[in-house]
Amino acid sequence: MATSTTERTTADDEATTEEPVVHILWINCGLSCDGDSVALTAATQPSIEEIALSALPGLPKIAVHWPLIDFECGPTSGADDFIEWFHKADRDELDPFVLVLEGSIPNEQINGEGYFTGFGYDPDSGDSVFDCQPMTMNGWIDRLAPKALVVLAVGTCATYGGIHAMAGNPTGAMGVPDYLGWDWRSKAGIPIVCVPGCPIQGDNLSETILYLLYQATGQAPMIPLDEALRPTWLFGATVHEGCDRAGYYEQGDFAEEYGSPKCIVKLGCWGPVVKCNVPKRGWINGVGGCPNVGGICIACTMPGFPDKFMPFMDEPPGARVSTAASGLYGSVIRSLRTITMKTVDAEPKWRKKGTKLTTGYQRPW
What we know:
Elements (H helix, E strand, L loop, with lengths): L4 H12 L4 E7 L7 H6 L7 H5 L8 E5 L18 H7 L6 E6 L34 H8 L5 E5 H6 L15 H5 L12 E3 L6 H15 L15 H4 L10 H5 L27 H4 L35 H28 L21
Parallel strand pairs: 1-2, 1-3, 3-4, 4-5
């Protein structure tokens, strides 16, 4: 049966008005344990499946190029040539795309004749795929960051360097803002977005990705970030401010050993000064989280982690003064509350049997 001109024209119009795709290019070849990728699989608010399938209202069509889920794809073979998507972005064939970086950035300028990281290959380094040299994390950042809609650093390793950037490390590791510059802006004028955590809290990451996708489609304003480039609505309060144990601190009532429900500052918790929402949000489905299950906060969302917060398990220096002051203040508060409790933990005197009404009610007749 012949196809009419009108039908062909309609089909052509539909092809030319095909919904644009926002690509998410995820590079996890930095120095890390892939724990942030694993943590994202447990996110529920929203889930990564809801994002990848554009299952939420207003989301554009999404294409997620993430090593953790492209299990059928090899670097140069398989169901899809996975690494080719990154080369397409380098050739300006993908627009727009979000560049996600996981793992700290080694200083490849001090690697001698070798390399610290590798993710795919450098097509300019040989005549064939098998002759090419690996493309380093630094090389991908240099090529793709200037072309990305936004650069998203996930996990403390990528945001601030993390464990691999400790004093004495042999790689000169650093975070994405250290590598690109803290004042760096994408071609869309968006700063580097940092979502720290060791590992990251999955919902914090999925919610940030969701916000950036809405921003990419003009449905959200510029993402609000603090001085450390963290989303302010996620990292605007301290662990202490959202902790169920904070009331014990105020009363100067501190745990002396693990397993106690009291404040665990004296056991080494850095919660009063650490910006993190885990006590409020929980870890998975609102359940868990370091202080919630009796573990101390070791400040893994902070730029100075881990060097400025060691040794772990020791009472933080500032806490010695504050807990002493809280102990004195708290003892007075506890005494006053004990007196008050004796009066309010009993029923009013008029609630009794008898021939007289003693509630104070005055009859109108």
